[in-house]
Amino acid sequence: MPDPVNPSKFRVSGPTLPAATNHPTQPIYEMSVANCRKLDDLATTQYAIPSIVLMENASIGLCHHAIEMLKHARTPNVFNNILIATGPGNNAGDGFALARHLSNLGFAPVVVMTVDPKTIIGDAKINLDIITKMSITMIDAQDYLAGEPTIPGLIVDALFGTGLTRPITGIAATLINHINTSKDAGALVLAVDVPSGLDAQTGEPTGEAVIIADRTVTFAALKDGYRSIEAQPNLGEVFVAPIGVPTELLESLGNRVHLPRDRT
Questions:
Q1: Can you tell me the distance from the alpha carbon of 87 to that of 50, in angstroms, rounded to the nearest whole number?
Q2: What is the pTM of this model?
Q3: Would the N or C end of the chain have less CB density within 10 A of its end CB?
Q4: What is the C-alpha separation between 50 and 48, in angstroms, rounded?
């Protein structure tokens, strides 16, 4: 596996199935942020896939990559050294569901919240309610930062998703700066779908506060902005995780990406 700490170039890996199977690997697709939203909408309205199922599939893919990155963690006690930073939307839901999976595997993730839990709605709230009942540790971002936290082995950026186009300010910006400082001190950073503060359509920062990830796990398809030169320092290695949408939707809304290794 490539070293997630110092990726030497922009590399993309597609969805994979367990090694014991001999099924063909699904092609990698690229699409606009607008079409990604349409992809989710059509999956639920046209194909009757509940949106919570899409979120669950995304979190399973995230968990796979989190475990892979923890193999390279520089801190000795990784089971109790995982931070999941969450914001106001569905990216937070992905983070909450990831916390459940990690907890079930014996890890002890800490979920840091930048918003009042009472403001969380929809599928994200379902997953928040679950981890609340599981007694997974959750802490307000203000309290977390005030406590002079130690450097975790892995930080998961589940703050903001692909819909963000404005600069990040306030406590979320402060937390992003802390995460980037922690990365400089040895933490590995996994971005959920897009590094928070990066415009997924243009590949450019939305403001001063932008996550610098070691690895970005994006869902269903690459976003148009990920080819941008400006995006590379923030993305790290990019992996595409499937979320269970029908292939015909990917074909109709996206473009196949042909990597050098695919060429004959």
A1: 22
A2: 0.88
A3: C
A4: 6
